[in-house]
Design goal:
Layout (H helix, E strand, L loop, with lengths): L1 H29 L11 H14 L1 H6 L2 H9 L4 H26 L16 H19 L7 H20 L16 H22 L10 H19 L5 H9 L4 H11 L4 H24 L2 H7 L3 H23 L9 H25 L7 H16 L14 H31 L7 H21 L3 H21 L5 H20 L3 H6 L1
Helix pairs in contact: 1-2, 1-5, 1-16, 2-5, 4-8, 5-6, 6-7, 8-9, 8-10, 8-11, 11-12, 12-14, 14-15, 15-16, 17-18, 18-19, 19-20
Amino acid sequence: MEKLINKHFKISIVFFALGLLFGIIYSLNLLGLNINSETLSPVNMRSIHISLMLYGFVPLMLSYLPFLLINKEVGTSEDGLRYLDLYTIIWYIFLVFMVISLLLGKNRGLAFYDFAYELNFLLAFAGVFYIIALYKFIRLYKVLPLWIKVCLRVVIIAPITLLILMNPIIGQVESTVTGPHGDNTLGMSLALIPIYYLIIKLLNEGEFAARWNILWIIPTVFYFGTVLYRIFFEALTYNQEWFAQYLTLLYVPLLYRWYKDSNIKVHAKRALLISILAFLFVDIEGNILFIPEIRWLFHRNDLIVAHAHVAMGIGVFFMVISMFINQIKELHKEIFLKLYLVGILGIFTVLSISGFTQAGFSNIPTDKLWILRSLFGLIAFSFIFAFIKIRTSYSKLELYNLAGVYADGFGGIFLILFASFSYPLLGFSFNGVYEYVVFTFVSMTGVIHYMALKNPNFTLLTVIIRVFASSMFFALYASDKLGIEALLISLFDLTYVFIYLIFFYKKELLCKD
C-alpha cells in the first residue's frame, strides 16, 4: 500500500503542477502576453487550468480515502491494490485525453465541465475498477461498518450518474450553470462533510466518535428536498435557494466540534486545520455574497475567482495533504507548503482587491493586480521543487539519454505548444493536423529515453525508432512531399543514431572479447 501511494501521489501531483502552470500562462495572457498559437490561446489555457484543478490530483487522491481507512482498520488486499492501480492509470489516461483535446480547442464552453462529454466514459470505465478494488478490500471485514455500506452504494451508482448528469442533452450540467445556485452550493458543501468525517476517522489516534450530528442531518434533508422539488414541481425561487444556502452555516460549529474532539498527529492536524479554516471562510463569504444587493455587484468578477481559489486551492487541496502527510516524506518540507500557501493567499488577495475595483469600490489598475497575480502564481508553483531530486553525476550513456529526454521529450511538447506560431516564422508550412501526430511521436521518443535512464536496454529501442523515422522523413523530403524541415528532422535523428552506434553500441562486450 505504501509503495502504491508513494508512486501515484508523485505522479498525480505532476498534473496539479501542470494545472498551476497553465493558470500562470492564462494570467499572463490576461496581461496581453500571448502569442498567435492555436494551442496556447487564452480560452484553451483557462479550460485546461480549471479542468486539471477539478479533475486531476485532488479528486484522484481523495478517492483513495476509503482504501486508506480500510487499511488502517483491517489491513490491505493485494488483489484489491492491483485494481486500484488500474483505476488510477485509467484516470491518468483520461487526464491526458482531456488536456490534449482542450489544447486543440475541443471544449463545451462550460465553467466547470469543459472537456468533451465522451471522455466521461473513460472516467466511468475507471470507476468499474474502483468498485472492484473496493469490493476486494471490504471482504476483509467480518462485519461491514455503516460508512462502508454507504460508500459502496455511492461508488456503484457513481459511473452511471456521471454519464447522465454530464450528458449535453438529458443531463443537468447546462441547466445548473446559471442562476443563484443556493441549493447547489449546499450540495457541494454537503459532499465535503462526510469526507472531513472520514479523514478525521483515518487520522485519529484511536476511535473517533462524531458528535452534534444534527448539524449535518438538517442540511441533508433540505438539500434532497430542494432537488426533488426542482425535479418534480418547478424551479426554486431566489428566497428558497437563499434559505438552502444559509443552512451551510450549520457546518461551522459542526467542524469546530469534530476538530476539537480529534486526536491527530501534529503535521496532519495542522494541514487539516488549514483545510477546515479555508472551508469555513469560503462558507461564510459565500453566504455574504448571496445577499442580493451584494451578489449582483460581484457576480462573475474577480472576487468570485478569488473565492474559488481558496475553496479548491486551499480547502480541498489541504484535505488531500492531511490524508497523505504522514506517508509522503516530501510533505514534511514545510518551506514548500508554506510557499504554496503564501502563493495562493496572494492570488486570493489581489483578485479580491480586483473584484472590489471591478465593482466600483476602488480605482486600482486591474493590470497591476494581475501582474501580482502572476507572480504569486509562480510562488505557488515553486512547491513542486520539493519533489524534484537533482542528480549531479551521470554516465556517458545516461547523458546521451538525458539529452534525448530534453531534445525529443520537451522538444515534442514545445512543438505541440508553439509550432503553429514558430513554423510560419521559419518559413515552414503548417497545416495543424498531421503535424500534431508527429509531435506526439517525437515526445514519446523522449519518454523512452527517460525509461532508458532507469533501464539502459530501452536505449536501443530509441535508436531503432530514429532509424525508421529518419528514413521516412528523408523519403518525404526527397519526393518533394515535405520541405527542408523534413530533411532537418531526418539529419537530427540520424545524428543520434550515429552517436549511439559509434560510442555505445556493444562497447563493453567488444572490450571483454
